[in-house]
Write a structure and sequence with these properties.
5-stranded mixed beta sheet, CPE0013-like fold, alpha+beta, 10 strands, 119 residues
C-alpha cells in the first residue's frame, strides 16, 4: 500500500493506493483523486519549468515550461536539453522553443515575451 497526497485540488486528500488490488485508490473526496492516484502509481508525469540562457534582450534568462506533463522517466533528459539551450530575442509568450523535447510529446515553450530591445 502506497500513501500519496493528492495535488489535483487544494484539498490535499491523503490517498492510499493498493498495488496488489489493481491500484485501487481510497481516501479521495472526488473522482479526480482516483485518477491522480492511479496515474501517479502507473505512469507518473510532471510539467517541467525552468529558465534558459537568453541573448540580446537585456535579461540573462527566459522562463520556460513544457506544454504538457512529460513522463517522469524523461524529466532529466528534458532538463539536460534545457540546461544547454541558448535562445536570442525576440521571443514571444507561448513560442515553441524545442518541439517534442526529448521525444516526450511535449514542446518546450517560452512563458514570457522579450522584444530584444532591453525590455
Amino acid at each position: 500500500m502506497k500513501e500519496l497526497i493528492c495535488i489535483v485540488c487544494p484539498r490535499g486528500c491523503h490517498l492510499k493506493v493498493d498495488e496488489n488490488d489493481d491500484y485501487k485508490v481510497t481516501g479521495h473526496r472526488c473522482a479526480r483523486g482516483v485518477l491522480y492516484g492511479y496515474q501517479e502509481m502507473t505512469a507518473p508525469t510532471r510539467v517541467v519549468t525552468s529558465t534558459v540562457v537568453l541573448e540580446n534582450a537585456g535579461e540573462e534568462r527566459c522562463p520556460v515550461r513544457t506544454s504538457q506533463a512529460v513522463p517522469k522517466a524523461k524529466m532529466f533528459e528534458v532538463i539536460d536539453i534545457v540546461r544547454k539551450l541558448k535562445i536570442s530575442a525576440p521571443v514571444s509568450l507561448g513560442q515553441v522553443l524545442v518541439p517534442d523535447i526529448a521525444g516526450s510529446g511535449a514542446d518546450l515553450i517560452a512563458t514570457r515575451s522579450f522584444s530584444g530591445t532591453g525590455n
